[in-house]
Amino acid sequence: MRFTQGLVNGKKTTVFVINDEFYVPDFEGIECVLEDSKNVVKAFDLFKNVKSYRKVELSKFLPAIFPNKVFLPAVNFRSHSKESSIEPPKQPYFFMKGNNSIIAHGDSIIIPRGVRKVDYEGEIGIIIGKRGKYIKKEEAMDYVFGFTIINDVSFRDYQFPEIHPYGLNWVMGKSLDTGLPIGPWVVSKDEITFPLEIITRVNGRIVQKGSTEDMIFSIEELISYLSNGITLEPGDIITTGTPAGVAEFGNKEYLKPGDVVEVEVPGIGILRNEIKNEF
After folding, report:
1. How many CB atoms within 10 Å of residue 56?
2. CA–CA dist 92, 223 (Å, integer)
3. For residue 2, what are the β-bridge partners?
4. What whole-number distance in Å separates Cα of residue 202 and Cα of residue 208?
């Protein structure tokens, strides 16, 4: 099952993606459930048994899902650890992004005033499917609903250098407006086969290419670790981290106005956003 949020006849709704076309369930009384895609996650058993759909025209993508919490692990790919000359952490090390960062497939990533080092980080988003706390690693996949694509846009002017003794500036380096494109849709886990590949392109040129086989901490380990004291809710997102190839630790070719950045995960889709200046 694949779904996203979008505008249909000017109204926000959840649409289901079938053969790259958009549909809504063809029965009455479902409109209020479709207003928030987190409801689809909660009512998965209902929607996977729907037999009748009505085709609709999607005029605009909205964020495929609008999570309450987004957790992103730092340095969780071996290749990224190597390129940044940063030793992998002994246990998962997370930062968070606020809802102000979230934008949709097709929206613009805005370069804030005075910022010159805007970077891309292609990642996979793991969608939590049911409420859980103190989750055992061997049971963690039972709490996964599905997957989406994430671009962890990073504002390196703020993030680096480290501010002694406080560390990196995670809030300003990661959580500025438009810094978290999500989409183009969510794919339920029954349609996904691992390993998955992450490919990031800037203006059609491949800048990142990696596999989930390169992850330092597995999906199960990330979920289990976070749930030790944090209640995970349906619709929450945990990302995989990013492979090597980011501008900061490579050629320093940061994103500029007019660039188009794409993050592709074969089996899920392509998340595409253009870069613009804030005027």
Report:
1. 16
2. 10
3. 187
4. 9
Q: Is 70 exposed, middle or buried (0-12, 13-18, 19+ CB in 10 A)?
A: buried
Q: Are 183 and 148 in contact (CB under 8 A)?
A: yes
Per-residue pLDDT of the chain (279 residues; tens, 9 = 90+): 999 999 999 999 999 999 999 999 987 778 888 999 999 999 988 888 888 999 999 999 999 999 999 999 999 999 999 999 889 999 999 999 999 999 999 999 999 999 999 999 999 999 999 999 999 999 999 999 999 999 999 999 999 888 888 988 999 999 999 999 999 999 999 999 999 999 999 999 999 999 999 999 999 999 999 999 999 999 999 999 999 999 999 999 999 999 999 999 999 999 999 999 998
d(CA 109, CA 278): 9
Measured distance CA(105)–CA(6) in Å, rounded:
10
- Looking at residue 246, its amino acid is V
The span from the CA of 217 to the CA of 240, in Å, is: 9
Angle at 122 between CA 119 and CA 118, to 5 degrees: 10
Cα 55 to Cα 15, 18, 52, distances in angstroms:
9, 10, 10
Distances in whole angstroms, Cα of residue 276 to Cα of each of 87, 111, 175, 210, 273: 34, 6, 17, 27, 10
Backbone dihedral angles phi then psi of residue 168, each to the nearest 5 degrees: -70, 155
CA atoms within 13 A on the CB side of 16: 20
What the block records as the tokens of 70 is 């987004």
